[in-house]
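Fold it.
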Amino acid sequence: MPHTEFDLFAAARQEMIDEGFDPDFPPGVDEQLTALKTRAAEAAGGEVRDLRALAWSSIDNDESRDLDQIEAAERVNGGIRILIGIADVDSDVAIGSPIDRHAAEQTTTVYTGIRTFSMLPEQLSTGLTSLNEAADRLAVVVEMVVAADGSISDTSIYRALVRNRAQLTYNAVGPWLEGTSGAPAKIRDSADLEAQLRLQDRAAQLLLDERHRLGALNIDRIETEAIISDGRVQGIGVRRKNRATELIENFMVAANGVMARTLMNAGAPSIRRVVRTPERWPRIVELAARYGETLPAEADSGALNVFLQKRKLADSVHYADLSLAVIKLMGPGEYVFARPGDADRGHFALAAHDYTHSTAPNRRFADTVTQRLIKAVLAKRPSPYSDEQLEAIARNCTLKEDAARKVERVMSKRIAAVALQPRIGESFAAVVTGVTPKGVFVRVLDPPAEGLLIRGQQGADVGDQLRVKLVSTDPRRGHIDFAA
């Protein structure tokens, strides 16, 4: 089948429907969008600070247009003050409005590689509520001081009017921070912006060091992305972690912790993001034993991280596969409703207590809800949701997140099958990633893709490196077959 015959766009839409999503916005949304105007601070209600003079910038993926957060930093006595501005989605999306009802049902933006199914209409998520460069926007600001030991103090949350001075990307900023490439044009042209980002990077590394001391896992998994040109898949690339992704990740983890603790200290209900202590910890212990390492009998994220980092140094080729095995054994994260005074269930992978999701309200409904809860605290109003509503929201967010993962996983396989179709008959370097009753699976290293070894699989074991030939692909089923 020529690869142009398979319609990935139609497949993505159908996969969304099959997993319980509605890819179309309902009646009433267009009218609501028409009525919305870009808001100014005086129209926002309540106390709103004017922070447009700060040197805000954003860092995101190359293709990102739904900008949820911007950052700024300054040196102060005691450390580095970090300010994280989060898009004020709530100001444009009223509870119970058509857009809000749709977002509450979908709960998440789904990235299928070939098409993005946005939780909010793009006129909002990439327009009115996106922290776009050179645009005045309302934001919820999380402020903190990061000390030399990575500890956080002097935290506060408030509303502000902000302006993003520079929209930057991970792929440009990361190599510059690492010293492997020159500064991107926007940084090269602004000494202030360069100083800002150096300071932000310093604070992020302090936060990271402290997180590792507390036992946070540094898991490195391969994330693939489709290379699209004129609406067609031209290949598959790899999205890698770098110094810029670390910067944003550490700021977001810190901001989410501040948000959760602020809600807790105010006696307010919340939706927590939880990764429970792994029930399958004994299997993780067994996995480590295969490499001659001993983990404690009781779950210990710090010990697990030491083991993972040792394996990364010893065998970087197979580290992504080990990381994936550990992720599967830990189990997925979930959203849970927390009443004031409830026992903290924590986030095992982050070694974090009192953790919520709050920094991506354009993309995740749980974050929009958290924004509404904190705004109620700031305004000294009761929670806009009942406990029963929050429990239902947390449950639906978890279910839809699982469904979104299934959609993205299936579409990733289909995209790989389409991308590899023109290369049938070629040979590739590969590593065996799984030996199961269903067969032997291998991962091709370049381009990154996984498939079934249908010939020459006898005696193959996980970790073996071999040469394989691409025999066939089936985009409809997402199958790729190799022969050794």
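Confidence is low (pLDDT under 50) at residues 38-43.
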